[in-house]
Write a structure and sequence with these properties.
By secondary structure, the chain is mainly alpha-helical. The protein is about 60% helix and about 5% strand. Pfam families: DUF6350.
Length: about 425
């Protein structure tokens, strides 16, 4: 039953948001049945399942509900791991599998239930998208509490690079948020007018929808600040290229500029500074320069993979119209993240890190002068094993009376006077 808790909570939150939007909209007819029915595709959209609206695909979905749903799954999995004492891989896998399976089954059932409505979803996509998102969130909640010793199994250089990569990712997103906030302040009048197009009631619903797409806007601004930019159909915006044109009357799109500006290239100094900071933090990870470069490469790979996933999730199909698709250029953003971290990070880590000192070669002449008796024979013959093994051998050889031929001459008859 605990596995269904985030499923039901997400559905309830989606239904509540839709109820507020329908109740305050100017020309909407509110009904409880309609809200509950609309919450089914809303739940699928919160788990990034592409929807079909009147035969046109909607793949660019708000990320804020997805983040909220993932956090609920993370908390549920962490609580279950503590309650069940999941200190073995088998128990941890059971928790993750149960939560992921519940989300996949519910997604499949929701897709089947909405097949006859105005918003439909592919059953297979409704099965694996919620299962994948919930499995990742549940794993993040279980692993730190399972006690598998993951930290001890990771190489120190890789661990430092992983942490530096996560910090760099946070810095890139912070840059994107700052750029978006600056654009919002500069276009505040336009954005305010777009909220008031259909009155205060519709403005509230537009505000809720804009909040849902706020993470998408931050990721798009991150792609802009790192260089590749983004595109809405034929409209492309980026430091290295600008193609203007009309855009939908959506408040978040009111921040888009109507012409290029030369100072946009100055924004590229910000991701370069992030890469330099990564190199500075990894300057002491190893004495050998190759070890420091290895840690920088790990950080760059972490940033590249994360930016590819985020940019790919924030964009998608937009109904097949003039603004289709919403392309955040995930491949180029990922490549830009690699370069912004790897190039300045490697230079800083190489030049500012500790350098190994060459080992001094031993001076053989000085060693011989200091220890003159080190390779000489010992003066005391008693220290020789052969001398101790044959005591008195020299005395026997020098005594003529001990030879065998002298015995008869030295007997009693030699002194008898014969």
């Amino acid at each position: 039953m605990a596995a269904l808790s985030p499923v039901l909570t997400t559905y309830a939150v989606v239904a509540a948001v839709l109820a507020i939007g329908m109740a305050t909209a100017a020309r909407a007819v509110f009904s409880t049945t309609g809200v509950l029915a609309a919450a089914v595709p809303g739940w699928l959209a919160a788990h990034q399942v592409p929807l079909s609206l009147g035969g046109r695909e909607l793949g660019v979905l708000p990320l804020l509900p997805t983040i909220a749903a993932a956090l609920m799954v993370w908390r549920t999995a962490a609580t279950a791991a503590e309650r069940l004492d999941a200190h073995t891989p088998k128990r941890a896998a059971w928790i993750v599998g149960t939560i992921a399976g519940a989300h996949g089954v519910v997604g499949l059932l929701f897709a089947i239930a909405s097949s006859g409505g105005s918003a439909t979803a592919d059953p297979l996509a409704a099965l694996y998208y919620p299962a994948l998102i919930s499995a990742l969130a549940a794993s993040a909640g279980v692993l730190p509490r399972a006690g598998f010793g993951v930290r001890e199994r990771i190489d120190e250089l890789a661990w430092r690079g992983l942490k530096a990569g996560l910090l760099a990712l946070a810095a890139f997103l912070a840059i994107g948020a700052t750029v978006f906030l600056a654009a919002l302040l500069g276009s505040f009048g336009t954005v305010r007018d777009l909220f008031a197009v259909d009155g205060a009631g519709s403005g509230l619903g537009m505000l809720l929808l804009s909040l849902g797409y706020l993470p998408n806007a931050v990721i798009a601004a991150t792609g802009f600040a790192t260089g590749p930019g983004f595109a809405l159909g034929e409209v492309g915006i980026g430091p290295f290229g600008f193609t203007g044109g009309p855009v939908p009357a959506f408040p978040l799109l009111g921040v888009l500029p109507d012409h290029a500006a030369p100072w946009w290239f100055a924004l590229l100094l910000l991701p370069a500074a992030v890469g330099a900071v990564v190199g500075w933090t990894l300057r002491d990870v190893a004495v050998a320069p190759a070890g420091r470069l290895r840690a920088v490469v790990v950080a760059a790979v972490v940033v590249a993979m994360a930016l590819a996933v985020l940019a790919g999730s924030a964009g998608g199909a937009f109904g097949g119209g003039a603004f289709n698709p919403v392309d955040l250029r995930a491949a180029w953003v990922s490549l830009a993240g690699v370069l912004w971290v790897a190039v300045p990070g490697s230079v800083v880590a190489w030049t500012t890190g500790e350098r190994s000192r060459p080992r001094a070669e031993p001076d053989l002449d000085d060693d011989l002068d200091d220890d003159p008796d080190e390779e000489q024979e010992p003066e005391n013959p008693g220290d020789d094993g052969e001398t101790d093994a044959e005591p008195g051998a020299d005395d026997l050889d020098d005594d003529p009376g001990d030879e065998p031929g002298d015995g008869p001459e030295d007997g009693p008859g030699a002194g008898s006077g014969r």
